[in-house]
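pinging the channel bc i need a second pair of eyes. not urgent but kinda urgent?? the chain im working w is below, pasted from the shared doc
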Amino acid sequence: MRRAHSWVRKTLNIDMEGEQTDYVWGVVDMIPDTDFPDIRNKSAIHSNHGSCMLIPRESDKVRLYVQLGSKEAIDATNGRVDKDQLGPEKLLNVARKSMAPYTIRQPKAIDWWTIYRIGQRVAAKYSRASSQLQRNIDLEPGQGMNASMNDTHNLAWKLIHVIRGWAKPSLLATYELERRKYAQDLIAFDKQFAKMFSGKIRADDVDLDGVSVEEFTNAFHTFGGFTSGLGICYQESPIVSIRYQAVASGLILGKRLPSQLLLRVADGRPFELQHLLPSDARFKILVFTGDIYDARQRAKVSACAADMDARDGFLRRSSPGGNIFAIFDILAITPKGRAQYADLPEFLRSHWSKVFVDKQTHPRDRPAYLNYGVGPTGALVVIRPDGYIGAISSLDQVGHLNAYFEGIMRP
């Protein structure tokens, strides 16, 4: 989100650290009339006339990012972009040169357009800035708004927990710890991507001036996690405990939970696990039970349920008025094979909809236990309200989760 001249930040005396480039780009949203064959695919075009990116949008619209000259539309007196010097017709003319020999005709209407100069900055501190006022980056990879939404999500659930008296005020300090580090990494990515995309493509192996097609393609793959937002991995903190990673080796502490299909035991319906973890400000506790029809494992699951339900355990201690489900949701996941809802300890089946079996719905599906690296002895996984994995433990290490929540929650 571009807020380079924020009056809020100026009022709070918060500096932006970073730099401004000489790269000038234009953006046009429209319903295109063109013979370009990949107009409905995300496309990057490099030519001797500059670069162009095509992004399909809703309602038949397409967004064109068009590279301009470094001095075009720049007010010489203040160095800022002056939109009065150019219009959408000029941007389309530049795009036509980049797309030749394909053509793009004048659209019936221009939905929106702008011109901007690429800058990469991050706020010197976050504790006095709102989430949308922290960075000024290039728009091409679509990072600005995506990052701001993640900023807001990260901050919102923490504010909710503190304002409602559930969590300690120190929880808010993790906002800057997590999101400023991400912003710095994003700026580093954006500098490389903007330079690469605004540069020229290398003509051949002899010409070493420019970017090769392979380098450009690899950059898209390498930075796919940034572009999707799924590559974020938060460092160790009071809300990311890196102990017991081996208990669920396929789940990376500090990252989002990977997608997975499960079957609900009660009615056999398939569910995407992400759909079972709504953004409702609650922590989700995933209990991978292991084979409950093995006597030793069943005893371990029963002991785990008792420890979780203990008066001095994290669930009872952290819940307002004793209502566990105000702050927590608990899902039990059994391995493939037979599974009966009533065979689990009562505490792990608070509702018929909370018990699932790791059964493949298609031969190509991978089981959750295999995907997540969970062994036959099971695991406990804490999913934060923003969908990131906060802690993992074995079934007999509920004390680890007690300590985790004691560090952030009010008794």
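so The chain has ten helices and 13 strands. and Residues 245 and 363 are 29 Å apart (CA to CA). — does that match what u expected or am i reading it wrong
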